[in-house]
Write a structure and sequence with these properties.
Layout lengths: L9 E6 L18 H10 L8 E6 L5 H11 L3 E5 L5 H14 L5 E4 L5 H4 L13 E3 L4 H8 L6 H5 L4 E4 L4 E3 L27 E3 L26 H13 L4 E4 L8 H14 L6 E6 L6 H10 L2 E8 L3 H6 L6 H12 L3 E8 L6 H12 L4 E6 L7 H4 L7 E2 L6 E3 L5 H17 L3 E2 L3 E4 L8 H4 L3
Parallel strand pairs: 1-2, 1-3, 3-4, 4-5, 8-9, 9-10, 10-11, 11-12, 12-13
Antiparallel strand pairs: 5-6, 6-7, 13-17, 14-15, 16-17
Length: 453
């Protein structure tokens, strides 16, 4: 199938922005970011001048509305971005679209766009509704796809970094190296694609130096690459122009790439914007340094997530999660003296037990921090492909939540969920569909006062 030559090419980018679970964030708006990264990549490529791009984002229950809007745009190519919350709806839209326009090229990307996910029983066969999957960073790949002279099979096979469905399995094209110079990635803020007044998203590096089985945050490859201080400073200034009420750091951890962290600190010293807003980030507790604590004091208002998962070293080892209990507690207390922190633990983690989980919860509640519990998910690039056979994981293929596994019967999972809801609400916390929050019990002193400075 050849692209038209009588009019500008058209690309429809389709996503589903979720509503906050249990309305946790109140009035804050969290716009979709990944799809706008792709949009910015298309706009930022001089070889694609004149390309028309439409972003289509509706409600989960408005599948016909998605279909009508896509068809009305008359695209030459459709890209879907999928996450856990959006995958079932987006796949159904793609199926309906394929029935209406059988030869319209369809590509999927995003954290849930993985061949192992599409092989799950509700979502197969993938070759019936999509042409290609991007199983990684998509900014440069979408540029190559948009430049193809046609969308015949041989054209798809010429693009490095794609996974192509067939009737008998999957075909992977030539491997594409990860983006070495992250500053080449176009900013949705610089292109005016992000909504005014929405929460801002910041990246300072990509990937993760860890490889925990329950987490799909990223790959160990290229984790030393970082966005420059100039790039980050430009983002912060754009956040100010967009009047962002909060900045969410998308990195695996504030302190997991020392070069990226130092670039962020330099950028904020130039801009000062983080002192004007709320800063959310994850931080890895066992490698907290004084420079991290000093940065947090410099910016003032922050909320840091601290991944604890379990207090049982044996459980953490099963999941390839490094643990250092003495340093962990010392880091938690040092962080709690500086800012608001949230200890994050996981219920129904394979290899754990309800008894072990509640010991972890009680210990977490004894520390000077908010506590959040997440129901364990079977995520692509994580437990979906990196589980251990002996864990016998059974899960809901729509929500990806674990139903039962080694150490957890279905009844134990249900009882734990009920008890968590009861405890969190009794403590003045909140309960969502997949999480339970417990507020901290004491006021926070100054870090410098606590350190005698």
């Amino acid at each position: 199938m050849s692209l038209p030559t009588t009019r500008a090419r058209r690309v429809a980018l389709v996503c589903l922005t979720p509503r906050p679970d249990a309305q946790e964030l109140g009035h804050l708006r969290l716009p979709s970011f990944g799809i706008r990264r792709i949009h910015a990549a298309l706009l930022g490529d001089p070889d694609l001048a004149g390309l028309q791009v439409a972003q289509i984002d509706r409600r989960a229950d408005d599948l016909e509305g998605y279909l009508e809007e896509i068809l009305a745009f008359e695209p030459d190519l459709v890209g879907f971005s999928i996450y856990v919350w959006s995958a079932p709806a987006m796949i159904e839209v793609a199926r309906r679209l394929r029935r209406h326009r059988p030869r319209l090229p369809i590509v999927f990307g995003g954290p849930s766009a993985r061949s192992a996910f599409f092989d799950l029983e509700p979502y197969g066969p993938a070759h019936g509704y999509l042409d290609a999957v991007v199983e990684g960073d998509g900014e440069e790949i979408i540029q190559d796809i948009a430049k193809l002279p046609s969308f015949e099979r041989t054209a798809w096979e010429s693009v490095r970094g794609l996974t192509l469905p067939t009737e008998t399995g999957w075909f992977r094209t030539e491997r594409r190296p990860q983006i070495a110079s992250l500053d080449r990635i176009a900013s949705p803020y610089a292109h005016g694609l992000m909504p005014q007044g929405g929460v801002a998203y910041l990246e300072t590096f990509r990937g993760c130096p860890l490889s925990c089985r329950f987490c799909e945050w990223g790959s160990k490859e290229n984790t030393k690459a970082a966005f420059s201080a100039d790039y980050v400073a430009g983002e912060l200034e754009a956040f100010r122009r967009h009047e962002a009420p909060a900045v969410f750091l998308l990195d695996a951890g504030l302190n997991l790439n020392i070069g990226a962290f130092r670039n962020l600190r330099i950028a904020n010293q130039r801009s000062g914007f983080l002192k004007e807003t709320l800063f959310w980030a994850e931080i890895y507790p066992s490698i907290v340094r004084d420079e991290h604590l000093a940065f947090i004091e410099e910016i003032g208002t922050a909320y840091l997530g601290v991944g604890m998962q379990s207090m049982d070293p044996a459980v953490l080892r099963l999941h390839d999660r490094p643990s250092d209990s003495p340093r962990f507690e010392a880091a938690v207390r040092a962080l709690a003296a500086v800012t608001n922190i949230e200890l994050q633990i996981i219920a129904a983690l394979p290899g754990d037990t309800p008894e072990g989980f509640f010991r972890t919860l009680d210990y977490a509640l004894s520390l000077p921090a908010n506590v959040r519990v997440y129901h364990c998910l079977v995520l692509p690039d994580a437990l979906l492909t990196r589980s251990r056979p002996e864990w016998n994981i059974r899960f809901d293929t729509e929500t990806m939540t674990i139903r039962s596994c080694e150490g957890w019967s279905e009844e134990a999972v249900a009882r734990t969920r009920q008890e968590l809801r009861r405890r969190s609400l009794a403590a003045g916390g909140k309960a969502g569909e997949f999480w339970w929050a417990f507020p901290r019990r004491e006021e926070r002193p100054s870090w410098r006062r606590a350190a005698g400075q």
